Amino acid sequence: MVAVDLAEVSTEALMAEIQHRLDCTRKPEKRIILIGPPGCGKGTQSPRIKHEHCLCHLATGDMLRAAVAEKTPLGLEAKKAMESGALVSDEIVIGLIEEATQKPECSKGFILDGFPRTVVQAQKLDEMLAKRGQSIDKVLNFQVPDSLLVERVTGRWVHPASGRSYHEKFAPPKVAGVDDLTGEPLIKRKDDNAETLKARLGAFHSQTTPVIEYYSKRVVALKADRPQDEVASSIAQAL
Question: Which residue ranges does the record assign to the Adenylate kinase active site lid domain (predicted)?
Fold first, then answer.
């Protein structure tokens, strides 16, 4: 955790944060899964959902990288699997999610992004939550025609630390190449290109369609090719 000198924080910002934390104590718990193809807008909407509902955001890829870097027991298991060329097991990923959801910042629930990708993973996630008397509340299915995704993905820039995403055409930062809030540099993900996208879309549709069917009673279909504020409004109604 980075230390913050409160003398450098304005009174207005400090009071707004205190009020937000007080508001969070009155929020109901929510456990949400985001499903959608690359470039569908999950990265744009998840910070809004996180703030509005006082949830933690769990991106399994980021969690794996952090666990490996921190050399946690699960991280060491994951590293061993990756170094041998094997896939990281579902049990390791579920273990990471279980550990993360017990942290204070997840006390009101979580947004899960990038998992589950298969029905087996969804079943294992449900089993883990059921042991704690919990369950997934909503599955937000971000629907965007494949034909629109290439332009979205190839123009995307990301702030690595927060996950905030921008687009050079549709949602540019105030200063090119720089995050609006921190002033830190943005990056282009190496797999944000047309060739990789086509392969990822094929895998996404074949794997994820059964997951959407599995959660059918909790799925909310979002027409995610609309303006950001319209999508946000639909999400607010769904939650």
Answer: 156-191
